[in-house]
Amino acid sequence: MNAHCDTVEEFQCNNGFSDLIIDTKKSAVHRKHETSRKEDEDESRLPALEAAYTNILRHLGEDTHREGLLRTPLRAAKAIQFLTKGYHETIEDILNNAIFDEDHDEMVIVKDIDMFSLCEHHLVPFFGKVHIGYIPNKKVVGLSKLVIFFFFFFLVQERLTKQIAVGIHEALQPKGVAVVIEAAHMCMVMRGVQKMNSRTVTSAMLGVYLEDPKTREEFLTLSQRA
């Protein structure tokens, strides 16, 4: 404790801890309010979504009054709300000011982040792995949390790959960002060409990863290494 401070409270006040505690409490209250508001909005949308799923089942020839389907429209409505929750969230909600100053300027790679999303063409899942590299510019972040935000929309893999790269770039302003996604698409596996073992690979490169072949090659080599 500082020699000029007689109490813990004085030490905290003199070193700015009181302001930090107040800001943290305000942030927590704001997040709680926002969460409550979003939950209320989701609840208000449920009846229309439930009715829509009921109509779909009926038009497909199902009996929506049979035991196995009695609560299916409601369950499906709640599921689709969760799987598309990105429409009602923001990057700021997810990051929650969790970007940190760090004197590190070497490549950071996070491999094998599990991903899933819904294809906007057929509304069926595609899923796989995301590999990310970036070269910090004095700021770092927990990448998995940021990346997962982008999964909860109707998407195509190509756009998802670019959105993740741009999102990291805008959040951190790094020297470069690289993203590779490998995914299986149920629209290919279950219908159409029915290619059971096919994978789609997409990439997005920004900054030094785009400009410097050696940096790009280093990332691609390390991200694919078992």
UniProtKB/TrEMBL annotation:
Its EC number is 3.5.4.16. Belongs to the GTP cyclohydrolase I family. It comes from the Eukaryota. Pathway: Cofactor biosynthesis; 7,8-dihydroneopterin triphosphate biosynthesis; 7,8-dihydroneopterin triphosphate from GTP: step 1/1. It catalyses: GTP + H2O = 7,8-dihydroneopterin 3'-triphosphate + formate + H(+). Residues 50-222 form the GTP cyclohydrolase I domain. It comes from Stegastes partitus. GO terms for biological process: tetrahydrobiopterin biosynthetic process; tetrahydrofolate biosynthetic process; xanthophore differentiation. The keyword GTP-binding applies. It holds the Pfam family GTP_cyclohydroI. One of its GO terms (cellular component) is cytoplasm. Keywords: GTP-binding, Hydrolase, Nucleotide-binding, Tetrahydrobiopterin biosynthesis. One of its GO terms (molecular function) is GTP binding. HAMAP family: FolE. This is GTP cyclohydrolase 1. The keyword Coiled coil does not apply. CDD domains: GTP_cyclohydro1 (cd00642).
